[in-house]
Amino acid sequence: MSENYTLIAMQKEVDQYIQQFKSGYFTPLAQTARLTEEIGELAREVNHYYGEKQKKATEAPNTVKEELGDVLFVTMIMANSLDIDLTEVFEKNMKKFNQRDRYRFERKDNE
């Protein structure tokens, strides 16, 4: 695995993975359901690790890191199927957050 993965390269690799299957990409609604499922699994792991609810002895030993990776993977699948460039989306979002939320939280530089 390359240490220099870009979002573009990751999206391309995910597409190559999906293209090997006859079913290809699922519908946006099915993908939203899958993304919601993965976010639920992430929330469960966060709750087990940081919250009061301990994991049952019979439950699989997943990690927050693992579940966050699943959320990222499914997000890329959905972006690919909708022809969304996540690099472009990221750049626009950072610009928006840097402008809109510049003074929303107390800053370390006391600005």
TrEMBL record:
Signal peptide: none annotated. Residues 27-105 form the NTP pyrophosphohydrolase MazG-like domain. Gene3D superfamilies: MazG-like (1.10.287.1080). This is NTP pyrophosphohydrolase MazG-like domain-containing protein. The lineage of its organism: Bacteria, Bacillati, Bacillota, Bacilli, Lactobacillales.
